[in-house]
Q: What sequence folds into this?
């Protein structure tokens, strides 16, 4: 039964407040949109899957059948052819290091026994049977690599040595809501002011992008330039102008000014704010929201126009340790310091590494990076245990000369696998690979982990080149399979493929990788078109699953379905339209794809509850069908007499001795201190030694839309609250905010939920249960499953196949 998904332990306790919505609708839209449904018009974009009303027959499929019954006639008849030396005082406490015992996942003494109880013999979340990399090697966590490949170019920055180097550090600090809400920028400035910089470091800070700075020095009305010196924040340019900080020209002007006024032997540039990875870019300017983020092409322009060669470029942001970003920055810097995952709100801890650099301004750059990484990960482990933490330093002089060729070869061979009837292997590898900001569906994955799982000779060569270029990488213990650099690879949102291909053209990235992701996305979409599955649980909820979809369609039928789809407006697949589907026409061999899909597809007709020999309600799949399952989630609803409260998704599963999926019939759901909450599982990582499960609880934190971060791991199988992150209005920004470190005593939390009427429509988001006031530390907030009350509970499971298509079981009522 190695193909079964894994589930967390369910700790059931007595008590609980039951389930009830409160007050009027919030008018905020769905808080559970990760499940793939939204208000009014059907599924929201989740990047994969046919828009369907249920497991009934696909409308395209019906058209094809009618055409065959009518003796042909073609599709064309129907479709028509188709300022002072004052030290800032803050309104929030300074960043301090606490002697808090960490509770991150890891190889504890009891991990093995916990895993055997929790997972049995299963070691992977997905059902692909790929429990570890196809070809595995030694992790590069915490190992400093000082070797340099002979193919690397010469470093552009030449270090004088003997502590004689002058250094200008340019911090580009777009405060945004990280500062206005939580004073994160102010705390980092305070850390800089505590550093002993000596007399050879010019530490400059450009400020802006924030509606309200949480100190009494930095202006909220105009951008400014400061120098941190002798423990003070000295104004250099008091009024740069109220300029959007996500515009390349704003950054390039700062770079030019800094180099002119503070010439140095070594230049360092640090981006501070939000980060959205390769698709989202850098920065969220709270004062110029419509300016958007600075794309990779924008970063390239800013650095090019700035005219400075940097020793290292760092990103004290989320998600910017990407291969794409590294290749851009390699044109202007020797090293990149950045994070693959979202950063905890504490961000880099500036005091220690700046003080060390002040003692020796001729320090080797990889040692500067190591100091940044060590102090950051240590501070995060002490102040926000459980929050995912990653940071790496990459030698761009080496990467730029070694990785592009190996990546092109890997891309070619992977494309050949997809074209030669081995899409499933690539899909399984992608489905199991470490993914970052998973709930945001930005499709950013660790490239070494992905290549390891693909396992070809070209993949091994790419892994070798990447691990050589990544000189130091460190993560929290719950961040398995995070090697230091990620890459965009479509799976959750195929609608981004075209824009990323354009980005690759803009930054001069090899076209072979663009072809590879186009080939994969084309097959994924083809599988979704052929599936006829559902992207919403509502048909199951209302008892409208009415057949077997297209599970018995022949290759000829699927060919007709795909042909029809390619001649349409593409809207039958969520998120796609004629403006973002050029990748399909270039890469899809319709007949070959149809033949492959006909032989490799999930049969949704088997998602029917039956009785096993013990009289239990079960879903029974063959082993071959389990191999087609990438994800499995339990979705529960509560009937309050007027409609349905969506309680979210969880990965709690029970299997009988024959490997059949048992119904959860105890009428319990996840609660915090007895308060039933809507909970959505986000990410599951498991090895034979440890595991970590992350989920979110939508809420209003002191009136602001947010999500509590819940973690269940090897050392904390009952789970704990690891922090909180804020939500954004759709379209406000594609970048990701750093997580808050701690909830404070007195913080008020209103849990929220989605609500559906008996008329089959989404009504609104509502408050769930009573207001909750934080009484002490987050570690005091107890997580368990409690009874939801006397009302009817509706239980359905969602199966996701190798094409990213979702299928929902019949609803069980308890």
A:
């Amino acid at each position: 039964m190695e193909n079964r998904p894994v589930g967390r332990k369910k700790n059931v306790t007595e008590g609980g407040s039951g389930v009830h919505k409160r007050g009027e609708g919030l008018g905020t839209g769905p808080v559970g949109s990760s499940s793939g449904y939204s208000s009014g018009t059907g599924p929201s974009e989740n990047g994969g899957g046919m828009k369907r009303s249920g497991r009934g027959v696909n409308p395209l499929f019906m058209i094809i059948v009618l055409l065959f019954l009518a003796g042909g006639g073609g599709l064309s008849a129907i479709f028509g052819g188709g300022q002072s030396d004052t030290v800032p005082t803050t309104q929030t406490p300074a960043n301090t290091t606490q002697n808090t015992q960490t509770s991150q996942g890891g190889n504890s003494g009891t991990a093995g026994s916990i895993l055997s109880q929790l997972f049995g013999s299963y070691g992977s979340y997905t059902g692909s049977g790929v429990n570890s990399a196809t070809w595995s090697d030694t992790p590069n966590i915490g190992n400093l690599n000082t070797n340099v490949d002979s193919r690397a170019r010469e470093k552009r920055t030449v270090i004088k040595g003997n502590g004689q180097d002058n250094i200008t550090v340019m911090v580009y600090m777009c405060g945004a809501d990280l500062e206005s809400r939580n004073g994160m920028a102010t705390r980092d400035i305070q850390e800089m002011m505590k550093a002993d910089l000596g007399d050879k470091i010019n530490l400059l800070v450009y400020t802006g992008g924030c509606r309200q700075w949480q100190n009494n020095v930095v202006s909220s009305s105009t951008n400014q330039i400061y120098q941190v010196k002798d423990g003070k924040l000295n104004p250099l340019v008091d009024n740069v102008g109220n300029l959007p900080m996500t515009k390349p020209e704003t950054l390039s002007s700062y770079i030019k000014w800094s180099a002119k006024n503070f010439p140095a032997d070594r230049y360092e540039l640090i981006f501070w704010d939000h980060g959205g990875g390769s698709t989202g870019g850098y920065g969220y300017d709270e004062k110029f929201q419509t300016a958007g983020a600075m794309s990779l092409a924008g970063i390239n322009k800013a650095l090019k126009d700035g005219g400075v060669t940097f020793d290292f470029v760092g990103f004290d942001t989320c998600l910017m340790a990407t291969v794409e970003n590294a290749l851009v920055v390699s044109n202007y810097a020797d090293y990149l310091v950045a994070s693959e995952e979202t950063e905890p709100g504490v961000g880099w801890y500036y005091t220690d590494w700046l003080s060390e650099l002040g003692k020796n301004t001729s320090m080797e750059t990889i040692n500067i990076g190591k100091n940044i990484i060590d102090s950051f990960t240590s501070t995060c482990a002490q102040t926000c245990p459980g929050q995912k933490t990653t940071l790496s330093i990459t030698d761009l002089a080496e990467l730029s000369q070694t990785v592009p060729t190996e990546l092109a070869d890997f891309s070619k061979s992977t494309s050949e696998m997809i074209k030669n009837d081995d899409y499933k292997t690539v899909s399984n590898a992608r489905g199991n690979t470490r993914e970052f900001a998973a709930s945001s569906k930005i499709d950013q994955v660790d490239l070494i982990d992905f290549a390891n799982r693909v396992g070809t000779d070209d993949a091994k060569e790419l892994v070798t080149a990447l691990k050589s270029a990544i000189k130091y990488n460190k993560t929290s213990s719950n961040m398995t399979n995070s090697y230091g650099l990620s890459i965009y690879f479509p799976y959750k949102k195929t609608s981004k493929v075209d824009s990323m291909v354009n980005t690759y053209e803009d930054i001069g990235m090899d076209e072979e990788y663009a072809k590879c992701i186009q080939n994969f996305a084309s097959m994924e979409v083809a599988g979704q078109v052929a599936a006829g599955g559902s992207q919403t649980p509502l048909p199951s909820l209302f008892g409208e699953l009415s057949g077997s979809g297209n599970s018995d369609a022949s290759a000829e039928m699927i060919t007709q379905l795909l042909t029809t789809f390619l001649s349409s407006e593409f809207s039958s697949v969520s998120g796609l339209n004629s403006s973002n589907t050029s990748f399909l026409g270039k890469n899809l061999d319709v007949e070959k794809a149809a033949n492959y899909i006909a032989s490799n597809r999930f049969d949704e007709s088997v998602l029917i509850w039956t009785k096993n020999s013990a009289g239990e309600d079960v879903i029974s799949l063959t082993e071959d069908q389990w191999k087609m399952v990438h994800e499995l989630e339990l979705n529960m609803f509560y009937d309050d007499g007027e409609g349905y409260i969506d309680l979210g998704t969880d990965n709690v599963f029970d299997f009988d001795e024959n490997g059949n999926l048992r119904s959860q019939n105890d009428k319990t759901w996840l609660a915090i201190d007895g308060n039933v909450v809507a909970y959505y599982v986000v990410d599951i990582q498991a090895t034979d030694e440890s595991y970590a499960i992350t989920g979110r609880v939508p809420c209003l934190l002191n009136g602001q839309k947010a999500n509590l971060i819940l973690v269940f791991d090897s050392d904390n199988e009952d789970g704990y609250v690891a922090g909180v992150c804020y939500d954004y209005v759709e379209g406000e920004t594609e970048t990701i905010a750093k997580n808050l470190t701690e909830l404070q005593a007195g913080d008020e939390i209103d849990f929220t939920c989605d609500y559906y009427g008996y008329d089959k429509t989404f009504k609104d988001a509502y408050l769930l249960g009573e207001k909750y006031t934080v009484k002490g530390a987050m570690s005091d907030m107890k997580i368990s499953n409690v009874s939801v009350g006397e009302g009817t509970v509706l239980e359905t499971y969602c199966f996701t196949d190798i094409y990213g298509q979702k299928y929902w079981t019949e609803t069980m009522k308890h």
User: Anything to note?
Assistant: The chain has a mean pLDDT of 85. The radius of gyration is 27 Å. Residues 396-419 form the longest helix (24 residues).
